[in-house]
Amino acid sequence: KSESKSKVPKEGVFPEIIRENYIGSQKLSGKKALISGGDSGIGQAVAVHFAREGADIAIIYKENDKDAKETKKLVEKEGPKCILLKGDISMKTFRTECLNKIRKEWKGLDILVNNAGVQFPKNKIENISDKQIQQTFNINIISMIALTRDCISLLKKGGRIICTTSVTAYRGSDHLIDYSSTKGAITTFIRSLAVNLAERKILVNGVAPGPIWTPLVKETFENLSTFGKDNPLKRAGQPSEVAPAYVFLASEDSSFITGEIIHVNGGDFVGG
Ligand code: NAD
């Protein structure tokens, strides 16, 4: 069968969140999942896939109420409930509010998806400001470690932590120097935390997407017509093509996998 048209990203066309023919088989039935950056792009696709697999969802998002409400609608159309948590993940007070709400509503947590991230437009090293470096590290890695630490007491035995890293963690990026450095740190965080939490039977893994058609890249890349064209599959991917990797890592199917990274990148980089 030839590649479906919906898989080929086009400028101005909203990314595909879930394939029409994605069959959920209740792999996450009754589970409770917290997803940072769950209102748009990859995080939104993960929220909707998890919901189709039966999990209740809480999403952390920074500011876009319209996207958050749309995600809630999409999740609840699948059956499960969706809690919206609006705020800045780098603020301790906000993280505490999130945890209090989850403790009250759910008592515990089965799955934490650390996915929120920022990326600033292409820059030569000499043009990167201190503010940009601090912001990129603060959101992408420092807040990820802090949120994870805060959630540990809520995570049940057998729980899952899944972090979004990036192909840039492996091959570097000449124009996203600060961003790719944070993703390298996330990759090391995943491996270290996996060992740290093994005794408590909490599995920690990551997904390293290559070029994926989301609002993040629309804001960052000047020339969207060439975005993703230099990988072997010669195209960018859709959020709907990344989310199933998260489902696998959240489900019983991955019960003997920890400290690993799944690469979803059209062959852009194979290894790790
Ligand atoms: P996106 O812009 O759609 O999503 C980013 C999310 O992060 C948003 O939902 C936003 O609400 C959240 N966020 C940002 N700052 C926040 C803050 N301070 N507090 C709370 N939430 C905050 O982009 P995306 O492409 O879906 O990105 C999701 C993840 O995937 C990021 O970690 C990104 O680095 C990673 N990634 C993306 C690509 C790609 O090509 N799109 C490739 C590799 C990795």
UniProtKB/TrEMBL annotation:
User: Corresponding gene?
Assistant: ydaD_2
Task: Please state the span of the N-terminal signal peptide per the UniProt entry.
Answer: none
Per UniProt, the keywords (alphabetical) are: Oxidoreductase
The answer to whether the entry has keyword rRNA processing is no
For this chain, the family text in UniProt reads: Belongs to the short-chain dehydrogenases/reductases (SDR) family.
Designated name of the protein: General stress protein 39
- Give its E.C. classification number: 1.-.-.-
Superkingdom field: Bacteria
InterPro entries, per database record = NAD(P)-bd_dom_sf, Sc_DH/Rdtase_CS, SDR_fam
Q: What are this entry's molecular-function GO terms?
A: oxidoreductase activity, acting on CH-OH group of donors
